[in-house]
Amino acid sequence: MAHPTQLGFQDAASPVMEELLHFHDHALMIVFLISTLVLYIIIAMVSTKLTNKYILDSQEIEIVWTVLPAVILVLIALPSLRILYLMDEINDPHLTIKAMGHQWYWSYEYTDYEDLGFDSYMIPTQDLTPGQFRLLETDHRMVVPMESPIRVLVSAEDVLHSWAVPSLGVKMDAVPGRLNQAAFIASRPGVFYGQCSEICGANHSFMPIVVEAVPLEHFENWSSLMLEDA
Questions:
Q1: Ordered domains of the chain (ranges, CATH)
Q2: DSSP helix/strand/coil, 124
Q3: Which helix (H) or strand (E) holds 87?
Q4: pLDDT at 115 (0 to 100)
Q5: Where is the Cytochrome oxidase subunit II transmembrane region profile domain (predicted)?
Q6: Does residue 53 register a pLDDT over 80?
Q7: Is residue 227 a contact partner of residue 113, using CB atoms and an 8 Å limit?
Q8: What's 1-54 look like in SS3?
Q9: Could you report the per-residue pLDDT of 108-151, keeping only the tens digit for each?
Q10: Is the omega angle on the peptide bond into residue 106 within 30 degrees of 0, that is, cis?
């Protein structure tokens, strides 16, 4: 999860998020190179009194500074499109979960099971135990098996919400009357935190998302206990 003074993204917990981190570094390096070149040219033009007529009027230089930006845009666009298609790819999900946004909590339904669903409310600050995070912990976590393709169907019951977990590389709008879908694979066990990322009213900041990835055997035990309690 994020920590104070953090400048970059959260640690990746899914293959798609790893690709996004690599693309971010790739694009940022190009931006640094362009910024350095432009800064050097500005300093050189301001600090020198010499003038070169071939720089002021040269078709060759105009061709270079027209073609070079086009090539750079292609180098950015191709990996970007690849990741865009990877994010939309959903191949034979092992588990489907329906996430419904409400004012101001989330409810989850495991549609592969007959009667497995629950509401997930934020734990108030005064009820937190040592080690829990303020404004991020919930009374019920969305538990998923690790290293398994998970499909999340996202919708809302009242106003616009957005189901987002940064470390998993997932962000999907929850629109009333519409069913959007996203997919992810948790590549390691852990607890991953997110928040509603669409302004949805007075308590928008108080409807966190907690995804817990566990080994398949532990997930089966958890689902059995949840079904018995239901």
A1: 15-88 (1.10.287.90), 95-229 (2.60.40.420)
A2: coil
A3: helix 59-88
A4: 86
A5: 1-91
A6: no
A7: yes
A8: CCCCCCCCCCCCCCHHHHHHHHHHHHHHHHHHHHHHHHHHHHHHHHHCCCCCHH
A9: 999 999 889 999 999 999 999 998 999 999 999 999 999 999 99
A10: no
pLDDT of residue 43: 92
**Cα separation, 24 vs 12, whole angstroms:** 12
CB 195 within 8 A of CB 205: yes
| Paired tokens of 174 | 């929850």
Structure tokens at 165: 């977990």
pLDDT of residue 141: 94
Give, to the nearest 10 degrees, the angle between helix 59-88 and helix 15-47.
160
91 band by pLDDT with thresholds 50, 70 and 90: confident
Query: Which H or E run contains 86?
Result: helix 59-88
Whole-angstrom Cα distance, residue 33 to residue 218?
Answer: 48
**CB-based burial label for 172 (10 Å; 0-12, 13-18, 19+):** buried
Q: Which residue has the tokens 């900041």?
A: 205
Instruction: Tell me the two tokens of residue 81.
Output: 């499109």
